[in-house]
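Deliverable D4.2, example record:
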Amino acid sequence: MPRDIPIGNGSLLINFDQAYQLRDLYWPHVGQENHTAGHPFRFGVWVDGQFSWVSGDGWSRTLAYESDTLVTQVTLYNPALNLRLACRDVVDFHENLYLRQITVDNMDEDDREVRLLFAHDFHIGGHEVGDSAYYEPERAAVFHYKGQRWFMINVAKDSPDGADKAPSEWRHPWALGVDQWAVGIKEVQGKEGTWRDAEDGVLSGNAVAQGSVDSAVALHLNVPGRGQATGWHWIAAGEDFREVTRINRDVRRKGPATFLKRTRDYWTLWVIKEHQNLTRMSSIRLRMSSIRDLPHRMSSIRLLRHAYRRSLLILRTQIDNQGAIIAATDFDIAHYGRDTYAYMWPRDGALVAAALIEAGYSEVTRRFFNFCHRVITDEGYLLHKFNPDGSLASSWHGWYYERRKQLPVQEDETALVLWALWRHFGRFRDVEFVKPHFRGLVVRAANWMAGYRDPDTGLPLPSWDLWEERNGVLAWTVGATWGGLQAAANFADAFGEDGLATTYRRAADEIRAGTETYLWSPDLGRFARMINRQDGGGWDVDSETDASLFGLWYFGMFAPDDPRIVATMKAVRDRLWVKTDVGGVARYENDRYHQVSQDVETVPGNPWFICTLWLAQWTIATAQTVEDLQPALDILDWAAAHALPSGVMAEQVHPYTNAPLSVSPLTWSHATLVTTVLEYLARLKRLQAPTDLD
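Output generated by the structure prediction step:
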């Protein structure tokens, strides 16, 4: 089930699914230590003797965000109960505090007691063994803990005449603390958990349990007829009792509304700090549209502006404060292969960092490059993927392949970190930041790439592809390696290392020459995806059309309008566009990952956001007139329109229903949208006459 509305602060991350169930709670790292293990935290309502979980039938749900911030905007309506709930969720920008505001709208004429019930199915540290939970009467709160992982749960209600009370009024006993509680055993002895105890609106009051445990708490609101009442629910995270109770005291002292407001304001400030002139989109669209098209075009402009800023905010939720840029934190993918995407792939991280660099977020990307410097091997390569704390993550790349040792690497992962670091330096010119990375990261990696090549062809030696499915000499990888070596040569020039610059450029030149000789296929009339040397001499040529051929030009090895690139990208467009109402570009022909259709002529594979946007980026790079940009804008429209209503973009979508497939959100999808918008604006500025920019 996709994660519709992630919220976080770089340390604590909360993910909700499409039924508004809290499904992931990561702390103290984004992507590491999921204290739910994907199990739902349920939210239910009891009124007039009836109970209903808001995730169930009978509820209509709208999951979105407030504009330009990381505050959710959730509406829940149940006509049978005659109730409407408006919810706001935040993770405080500074404290490890998850906070929810619930405003209950009683649509009945009579005053009613509405009981809000919150069930917490913790699996602390990713499993349920050895957990403890207890109710503590002094604070009228429930605690869950195991080792150095503590979680404190509390609730409060606004005063009857509104939420604008002085902070001191939060100290009144009636305003703070759970009205009911239950702590119990789950998942053993046939017991489902205390969430079942909640379904009659009355909790048992059991005060302690250990082992495989969960809890439920209730908040009772007296809601006037045709009126409203507001309640609050929060979870504080910390390493010990003292830390979580300190956070709880701050909420009591300041009032929960303070934390909601300050977090709303912080993320609005963050997302607009580097204002991009997105209004230029309106000028091109208005000139290219008739009056009849004008309402549609204006709506499209607003959609893209919203998608750009929403993507930046969603990106930030998936980035750990210690520098790891996480691919995805949707835990449900674990059901597919018993592993997740909650890791830092250096390639994904580098491409996300490149988007943030162009958007002006140097403080985030510095931490990423520091992370890469910490984890690079002494030999100069980056391994497959890493946990957010910097430890080596799980991998299916072995050290032994076809009767000989091999490096378990995807070479583009090392190369693209250097490529992105040079973009960072070009954008921010922060010499003192780059200086300590020059020897330990840039030179170390570039020396390895320059040496890890076939002496006969000049090409990189075989490694795993970006899709992690095949081993060989990949078009994407040679393009990325060329870009990484050129970046290293530029750094060497900047730091006065002329000999190193010459070495790296010579290696890059030989890679380009080898690409022209061995990867260009006159028979195909385009570049091949991959080659492998045969045991008896000669080459096996992989002729499948693959969207990643994009890498041959994007990292600078060939011009985007080189006739060979034009032929290659046209083949990508013609062969990989999904010929259904959904549309979009597949990764490659007959892509079996989450495959839903065997009709490969119509559906070569599921449409991926990144692959579709790559086609837009090539269109932008080759545009010679403002009118040439229109197909790229159409693709940007496609990306925004095929996201979830919250703005979240998955890895891929169903080719017939547009339902999200695989993980959601995918950080790389959002980064590619950000990059494409910025590249469009830059190209538009060059193509427009000076008077058009006034």
